[in-house]
DNA sequence: AGAAAAAATTACCCTATGGTAAAGTTTTTT
DNA sequence: AAAAAACTTTACCATAGGGTAATTTTTTCT
């Protein structure tokens, strides 16, 4: 468990710049959990029950659209994830979280996460959490509006090395906003 | 000034669900200001100096890309806006805020906004602010990934009635992620 | 008001991506 | 190990949107 603390602390430092008490409080309420590939951590249409820290593995955030799914986000080792919109609005939401490989997480109930938010130290945690989530989303929007799918693919591969090996092409394609066929073409061209 | 209070309060209620003390504190530090069309409220590469509440008019958030600009966001009457990424990171940022028509704002220095954030009431304000900004961005990302430019255009027109009359087509086009020529075609088709 | 500048529209052709289908590959199931 | 299912690649054609340029309309400047 000491190992988690080290890694969790590192994630906090990179992500939040929150005071040390905040992550201690957070860590104290975490429960370890293992999810196999394709296991659904949060189902579309439900309210989010947990806030996750990924120790090892990866999780995809999906939106089901007609018969297809669109991948809105990936989260890998050392990152946090959840259907944050559901947490914030306290309502059911259509995002679906799925393990993309065997994944070890530490999760905290949203109930506890919210209770944390009532304390002043948690207030800061919640704020930092929302702020960094916003910055990430803003970057994604900028990429979608200003970069070609080829650029976006190359940057994704840089940001998450080996992502092509760990995550199905179809998920990467939908994340980029293109079809698997188009991604396949891109890959062939610049292989 | 009573008028502002009413409208500002309304904006808070719609946006933040923050306690009444938060917006009173906010309103107390605001300074009224009028910007003419095309006036730059925040220049690319600078740090954000103000946090704005728009009483009447509109502001565009732009990112300059090569010789062009891309519109990332619009803000109209009763909304807040700023280069939020710069405020959060406390660093210079490339977004540029421009008045799209004659616009009356009430602005607060980021310095004061941050000081507010140190009080517990401001902590909540900052958190709510980040949270609602995140939700907005998430929605934008979803639209970009799941909807056609035609759908996005129609929804933009619904969300901000008369937007086609108040804002230049080229800005709307870049917000949608297409060229003015393509937007022109769309408009002709469904006029 | 008239001239100049900027923006919007239209047109033409071109390219990136979509849709469908089929072939090849990998993974899962039995 | 064989069969089935799922995924990836390839191919072919269709289409939305881009690039350039010319024309018209609107806005700005003098």
Automatic annotation (TrEMBL), chains A, B:
Keywords: Kinase, Transferase
Pfam family, one: cNMP_binding
UniProt xrefs under CDD domains: CAP_ED (cd00038)
MF terms in GO: kinase activity
Coiled-coil intervals: none
Residue ranges constituting the Cyclic nucleotide-binding domain according to the UniProt record: 39-116
Keyword Kinase: yes
Keyword Plastid: no
Domain of life, per lineage: Bacteria
Transmembrane spans: none
Protein name stated in the entry: cAMP-binding domain of CRP or a regulatory subunit of cAMP-dependent protein kinases
Species name: Lishizhenia tianjinensis
